[in-house]
Amino acid sequence: MRFLTITLLLYLPGIIYPEICSGQPKEAANPRLSVEIQAIWKEYNSALLANIKIEIKNECPQEYSALNTRILQLLDSVQYKFGYPDHDMVGVNVSGEFDKILFNYPLAAERKQAILQKMREKVLQQKASADNYAKITDRLMYNKSKSQVYGTIVSASNIYPDIAEKDLILSVPGLVDETNTDNKRKEIGLKPLADYLAQFRKDLALSLSSAKKAD
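-> C-alpha coordinates emitted (215 positions)
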Protein backbone atom coordinates (compact mmCIF):
# COMPACT_ATOMS: atom_id res chain seq x y z
CA MET A 1 0.00 0.00 0.00
CA ARG A 2 1.35 3.43 -0.93
CA PHE A 3 1.61 6.08 1.78
CA LEU A 4 1.73 9.77 0.97
CA THR A 5 2.16 13.11 2.66
CA ILE A 6 0.49 15.96 0.78
CA THR A 7 -0.17 19.66 1.00
CA LEU A 8 -3.61 21.11 0.55
CA LEU A 9 -2.39 23.93 -1.69
CA LEU A 10 0.59 22.54 -3.56
CA TYR A 11 0.07 18.77 -3.54
CA LEU A 12 3.72 18.17 -2.76
CA PRO A 13 5.34 16.20 0.07
CA GLY A 14 5.53 18.10 3.34
CA ILE A 15 3.38 20.48 5.32
CA ILE A 16 -0.29 21.17 4.69
CA TYR A 17 -0.93 24.89 4.43
CA PRO A 18 -4.54 25.95 4.96
CA GLU A 19 -6.73 27.75 2.45
CA ILE A 20 -7.28 31.49 2.81
CA CYS A 21 -10.95 32.38 2.51
CA SER A 22 -12.85 35.35 1.12
CA GLY A 23 -16.17 36.44 2.58
CA GLN A 24 -19.44 37.76 1.26
CA PRO A 25 -19.36 40.89 -0.95
CA LYS A 26 -19.76 44.23 0.83
CA GLU A 27 -19.78 47.77 -0.49
CA ALA A 28 -16.33 49.36 -0.31
CA ALA A 29 -15.55 52.75 1.21
CA ASN A 30 -12.42 52.93 -0.96
CA PRO A 31 -13.53 51.61 -4.37
CA ARG A 32 -10.28 52.59 -6.08
CA LEU A 33 -8.18 50.46 -3.74
CA SER A 34 -10.76 47.70 -3.99
CA VAL A 35 -10.49 47.60 -7.79
CA GLU A 36 -6.68 47.60 -7.60
CA ILE A 37 -6.63 44.65 -5.20
CA GLN A 38 -9.12 42.71 -7.32
CA ALA A 39 -7.10 43.24 -10.49
CA ILE A 40 -3.81 42.24 -8.88
CA TRP A 41 -5.27 39.17 -7.19
CA LYS A 42 -6.91 38.03 -10.43
CA GLU A 43 -3.59 38.21 -12.27
CA TYR A 44 -1.57 36.75 -9.39
CA ASN A 45 -4.02 33.88 -8.94
CA SER A 46 -3.63 33.10 -12.63
CA ALA A 47 0.14 32.92 -12.14
CA LEU A 48 -0.23 30.69 -9.08
CA LEU A 49 -2.52 28.28 -10.92
CA ALA A 50 0.03 28.11 -13.73
CA ASN A 51 2.81 27.50 -11.15
CA ILE A 52 4.65 30.61 -12.32
CA LYS A 53 7.14 32.10 -9.85
CA ILE A 54 6.74 35.78 -10.64
CA GLU A 55 9.42 36.80 -8.15
CA ILE A 56 12.12 34.94 -10.15
CA LYS A 57 12.72 37.07 -13.23
CA ASN A 58 14.41 34.46 -15.41
CA GLU A 59 11.48 32.06 -14.79
CA CYS A 60 8.72 34.59 -15.30
CA PRO A 61 6.95 34.84 -18.69
CA GLN A 62 6.75 38.30 -20.22
CA GLU A 63 3.01 38.65 -19.62
CA TYR A 64 3.63 38.45 -15.87
CA SER A 65 6.85 40.46 -15.76
CA ALA A 66 5.29 43.60 -14.25
CA LEU A 67 3.14 41.76 -11.70
CA ASN A 68 5.88 41.39 -9.09
CA THR A 69 6.42 45.16 -9.11
CA ARG A 70 2.69 45.82 -8.84
CA ILE A 71 2.37 43.55 -5.81
CA LEU A 72 5.29 45.26 -4.06
CA GLN A 73 3.79 48.66 -4.84
CA LEU A 74 0.44 47.52 -3.46
CA LEU A 75 2.05 46.31 -0.23
CA ASP A 76 3.90 49.61 0.12
CA SER A 77 0.73 51.60 -0.51
CA VAL A 78 -1.26 49.59 2.01
CA GLN A 79 1.47 49.71 4.65
CA TYR A 80 2.09 53.45 4.51
CA LYS A 81 -1.32 54.84 3.49
CA PHE A 82 -3.97 52.49 4.83
CA GLY A 83 -2.44 50.13 7.38
CA TYR A 84 -4.68 47.27 6.31
CA PRO A 85 -7.59 47.15 3.80
CA ASP A 86 -10.35 46.04 6.18
CA HIS A 87 -13.96 45.03 5.52
CA ASP A 88 -15.21 48.62 5.75
CA MET A 89 -12.51 49.98 3.46
CA VAL A 90 -12.67 47.52 0.55
CA GLY A 91 -15.45 45.08 1.43
CA VAL A 92 -15.28 41.60 2.94
CA ASN A 93 -14.61 39.76 -0.31
CA VAL A 94 -11.82 42.05 -1.54
CA SER A 95 -10.24 42.16 1.91
CA GLY A 96 -10.09 38.36 1.66
CA GLU A 97 -8.43 38.63 -1.75
CA PHE A 98 -5.77 40.90 -0.25
CA ASP A 99 -5.26 38.27 2.46
CA LYS A 100 -4.63 35.70 -0.28
CA ILE A 101 -1.92 37.94 -1.74
CA LEU A 102 -0.28 38.25 1.69
CA PHE A 103 -0.52 34.51 2.25
CA ASN A 104 0.89 33.40 -1.08
CA TYR A 105 3.45 36.09 -1.96
CA PRO A 106 6.87 34.80 -0.79
CA LEU A 107 8.79 38.09 -0.58
CA ALA A 108 8.58 41.32 1.46
CA ALA A 109 8.39 39.64 4.88
CA GLU A 110 9.01 42.87 6.81
CA ARG A 111 6.30 44.72 4.89
CA LYS A 112 3.86 41.88 5.46
CA GLN A 113 4.70 41.81 9.17
CA ALA A 114 3.96 45.53 9.48
CA ILE A 115 0.62 45.04 7.70
CA LEU A 116 -0.20 42.08 9.97
CA GLN A 117 0.20 44.30 13.03
CA LYS A 118 -2.50 46.60 11.65
CA MET A 119 -4.57 43.60 10.57
CA ARG A 120 -4.61 42.31 14.16
CA GLU A 121 -6.15 45.59 15.29
CA LYS A 122 -8.88 45.18 12.69
CA VAL A 123 -9.41 41.55 13.72
CA LEU A 124 -10.06 42.64 17.31
CA GLN A 125 -12.57 45.16 15.93
CA GLN A 126 -14.17 42.39 13.85
CA LYS A 127 -13.28 44.24 10.65
CA ALA A 128 -10.87 41.56 9.36
CA SER A 129 -10.84 37.78 9.25
CA ALA A 130 -9.36 36.19 12.38
CA ASP A 131 -8.99 32.91 10.52
CA ASN A 132 -7.00 34.52 7.72
CA TYR A 133 -4.89 36.51 10.18
CA ALA A 134 -3.89 33.33 12.01
CA LYS A 135 -3.04 31.49 8.80
CA ILE A 136 -0.93 34.33 7.38
CA THR A 137 0.87 34.84 10.71
CA ASP A 138 1.68 31.15 11.03
CA ARG A 139 2.90 30.84 7.47
CA LEU A 140 5.13 33.90 7.76
CA MET A 141 6.63 32.53 10.99
CA TYR A 142 6.98 29.01 9.63
CA ASN A 143 8.77 30.18 6.51
CA LYS A 144 11.24 32.08 8.68
CA SER A 145 11.82 29.80 11.66
CA LYS A 146 9.71 26.62 11.29
CA SER A 147 7.50 27.81 14.15
CA GLN A 148 3.88 28.93 14.47
CA VAL A 149 1.52 30.48 17.02
CA TYR A 150 -2.02 29.42 16.15
CA GLY A 151 -1.51 25.87 14.88
CA THR A 152 -3.00 26.39 11.42
CA ILE A 153 -0.18 24.55 9.63
CA VAL A 154 -0.65 20.81 9.92
CA SER A 155 1.58 17.89 9.02
CA ALA A 156 -0.26 14.81 7.74
CA SER A 157 1.25 11.38 7.14
CA ASN A 158 0.09 7.86 6.16
CA ILE A 159 -2.23 9.44 3.59
CA TYR A 160 -3.75 7.25 0.91
CA PRO A 161 -7.10 7.39 -0.93
CA ASP A 162 -8.88 4.65 1.04
CA ILE A 163 -7.83 5.76 4.50
CA ALA A 164 -10.57 6.19 7.10
CA GLU A 165 -10.92 9.63 8.63
CA LYS A 166 -10.10 8.30 12.11
CA ASP A 167 -6.83 6.77 10.86
CA LEU A 168 -5.34 10.02 9.53
CA ILE A 169 -2.24 10.97 11.52
CA LEU A 170 -2.03 14.73 12.06
CA SER A 171 0.51 16.81 13.95
CA VAL A 172 1.16 20.52 14.39
CA PRO A 173 4.87 21.24 13.84
CA GLY A 174 6.78 24.04 15.55
CA LEU A 175 3.99 25.17 17.86
CA VAL A 176 5.24 27.94 20.14
CA ASP A 177 4.01 27.95 23.77
CA GLU A 178 1.69 25.00 23.21
CA THR A 179 -0.01 25.28 26.61
CA ASN A 180 -1.29 28.76 25.74
CA THR A 181 -2.31 28.07 22.12
CA ASP A 182 -6.03 28.03 22.86
CA ASN A 183 -5.77 31.28 24.83
CA LYS A 184 -4.02 32.95 21.92
CA ARG A 185 -6.64 31.61 19.51
CA LYS A 186 -9.44 32.83 21.79
CA GLU A 187 -7.89 36.32 21.94
CA ILE A 188 -8.60 36.81 18.25
CA GLY A 189 -11.92 34.97 18.19
CA LEU A 190 -10.90 31.48 17.05
CA LYS A 191 -12.15 28.13 18.33
CA PRO A 192 -9.80 25.81 20.27
CA LEU A 193 -7.09 24.04 18.29
CA ALA A 194 -8.73 20.63 18.86
CA ASP A 195 -11.86 21.86 17.06
CA TYR A 196 -9.77 23.21 14.19
CA LEU A 197 -7.94 19.90 13.82
CA ALA A 198 -11.20 17.93 13.94
CA GLN A 199 -12.59 19.98 11.07
CA PHE A 200 -9.27 19.77 9.25
CA ARG A 201 -9.39 15.97 9.52
CA LYS A 202 -12.89 15.86 8.05
CA ASP A 203 -11.97 18.20 5.19
CA LEU A 204 -8.82 16.25 4.36
CA ALA A 205 -10.67 12.92 4.36
CA LEU A 206 -13.32 14.40 2.07
CA SER A 207 -10.63 15.79 -0.24
CA LEU A 208 -8.97 12.38 -0.48
CA SER A 209 -12.29 10.68 -1.16
CA SER A 210 -13.16 13.21 -3.87
CA ALA A 211 -9.73 12.80 -5.50
CA LYS A 212 -10.20 9.03 -5.62
CA LYS A 213 -13.61 9.38 -7.28
CA ALA A 214 -12.15 11.79 -9.83
CA ASP A 215 -9.56 9.16 -10.81
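The longest strand covers residues 154-157.
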